[in-house]
Specification:
By secondary structure, the protein is an alpha/beta fold. It is built from 17 helices and 17 strands. The strands form four sheets. It has a seven-stranded mixed sheet, sandwiched between helices. Strands 3-17-16-8 form a four-stranded antiparallel sheet. The protein has a three-stranded parallel sheet with strand order 2-1-15. The relative contact order is 0.22.
């Protein structure tokens, strides 16, 4: 199977629609030992196809619009956090204590970008906030011991494993048993009836974006026509953080949804991360333990709820898919996790960089002695587009069959798909030839053709344009991001 066929099948899509996808292959984009370029292209293509399918359904079109995926646009989007500029300032990436460390018997990767994770890491190791002190302690202990000690303290550390070691582990086996995209029906609520699909996004942006250049390969609506917005008029409650979940909801915002991101008031998002993934959305704070009335008002007219917390973490607040659907029939509940919903690690926190190390990707991209890294946080971005695609397909299915729906994806399952072709019995993973492998284009020479600039409340922004593109669809978000938590917790 080619990558797009793989993903579209996992989404339950009509195989005949894959012929609506064309691609521009650009050698040099997302170069890696693993088929990162092909998997990224497949995730974006499937998402765009799901959007085109829903748009055709809502607009009553006789044919699903064509989808065109450009490797250059995909590469720029998959590294969007690197290309962001706020008044010319480069973004802050990984914190000093978020890195690979030598241990007595190998390597361990820690993640300490957030202050509370940094504090837990230091408490577990019993050292001050000093790189040399951390390095000294880790060098004298085994990687697996560090992993368990730090996780027990609520921090994040993962020992380096080879693909074979991960596959043989209890968590690796549990993840391998999961579908790439878990999909299910929660009840027998009636078929969804959509309002007429809006033809243009509202509200209008404060200023029009100015592309740094305009490649002819970009698929954009004509200047005289308003874009087709498959998610127009729908309300999305965004309870996600970091990259993957926010990428999914950023994509739904591109497609016309009213996306309201809600965070706990005492747990701010990293500023640059919020800016990069906040396009098209509004951001509010809400304490779900004390202000349930506001949350229930939001839920009462929501169409989609997207969560990015550990499996079961929100259940105590009545936010399991079943509990949400019981209170709001016809809802689509989309869930993202790092390690999947089953296995001994199901309840653990995780990030893209940690999953790369645990699943053996770091060994494949380097060696066991000198671990490597993917050319992008491809697990985050790819999984984000898979989640958005799952939501869009669930909405389409609801229009025919009804039923509240749930969609689940996991970074570790995306990693297994990416590396699948490396193992005996693999299906070829994300790569493979075929009509969707991409027609030849110019070699990738950098992201500039797929970057744009616009003004915002945060300053002048440079950012990566969305890679999700179909005939008649939107070419950019309707609004730039604003400050974290600055909006009211209510629908437009």
């Amino acid at each position: 199977m080619t990558g797009i066929e793989d993903v579209w099948s996992a989404l339950g899509g009509d195989p005949a629609l894959v012929s609506r996808v064309s691609a521009v292959a650009r050698p040099g984009a997302l170069d890696a030992r693993l088929p990162v370029r092909e998997s990224a292209r497949a995730c974006v293509a499937a998402c765009a196809l799901a959007a085109a399918e829903l748009g055709a359904r809502r607009a009553g079109l006789a044919e699903v619009p064509g989808v065109r995926v450009d490797d250059g646009a995909v590469a720029a989007a998959f590294t969007s956090e690197r290309h962001l500029r706020v008044d010319g300032r480069e973004p802050v990436s990984f914190a000093p204590l978020s890195r690979l460390w030598r241990t007595a018997d190998g390597w361990v990767r820690t993640h300490a970008n957030y202050p509370h994770h940094r504090e837990r890491l230091l408490d577990a190791l019993g050292v001050p906030q000093d790189v040399a002190a951390v390095q000294s302690v880790l060098a004298g202990r085994s990687a697996r011991e560090i992993e368990e000690t730090v996780y027990a303290a609520g921090g994040l550390a993962v020992a380096l494993r080879t693909p074979a070691q991960w596959a043989a582990s209890s968590q690796g086996e549990a993840v391998a048993g999961l579908p790439l995209v878990e999909r299910g029906r929660l009840d027998a609520s009636p078929a969804r009836v959509f309002p007429s699909v809006p033809s243009s996004a509202s509200p209008s942006p404060p200023s029009s974006p100015s592309p740094l250049s305009s490649p002819s390969s970009m698929c954009s609506p004509s200047s005289s026509a308003s874009p087709l917005l498959p998610a127009g008029g729908l309300r999305v409650l965004d309870l996600t953080r970091v990259i993957a979940g926010p990428v999914a909801t950023r994509t739904l915002a591109l497609l016309g949804a009213d996306v309201l991101r809600v965070d706990p008031p005492g747990l701010p998002e990293l500023s640059d991360q919020q800016t990069d993934t906040g396009f098209g959305k509004r951001s509010a704070t809400l304490d779900l333990t004390t202000d349930r009335e506001t949350f229930e008002e939001l839920l009462g007219t929501a169409d989609v709820v997207v969560t990015g917390y550990r499996p079961g973490a929100l259940d105590r607040l009545g936010l399991s898919p079943e509990a949400l659907a019981e209170r709001r029939a016809g809802l689509v509940v989309a869930q993202l996790s790092a390690w999947g919903t089953h296995g001994p690690w199901a309840g653990r926190r995780g990030f893209d960089s940690l999953v790369q190390v645990a699943t053996g990707i770091a060994v494949v991209e380097g060696t066991a002695e000198r671990p490597g890294v993917l050319p992008a946080q491809a697990l985050d971005h790819g999984t984000g587009y898979l989640l958005a695609a799952g939501v869009l397909r669930a909405l389409t299915e609801q229009s025919y069959q009804g039923g509240s729906r749930h969609v689940r994806v996991a970074l570790a399952r995306t990693a297994a798909w990416l590396t699948d072709g490396l193992r005996p019995g693999g299906t070829g993973g994300a790569g493979g030839a075929g009509e969707n492998a991409g027609t030849g284009g110019a070699a990738y020479a950098g992201p500039e053709p797929w970057l744009a600039e616009r003004d915002s409340r945060l300053g002048r922004l440079r950012y990566a344009l969305p890679p999700v593109s179909f005939t008649g669809g939107p070419a950019d978000w309707s609004r730039p991001p604003g400050p974290w938590g600055a909006d009211a917790a209510r629908w437009l």
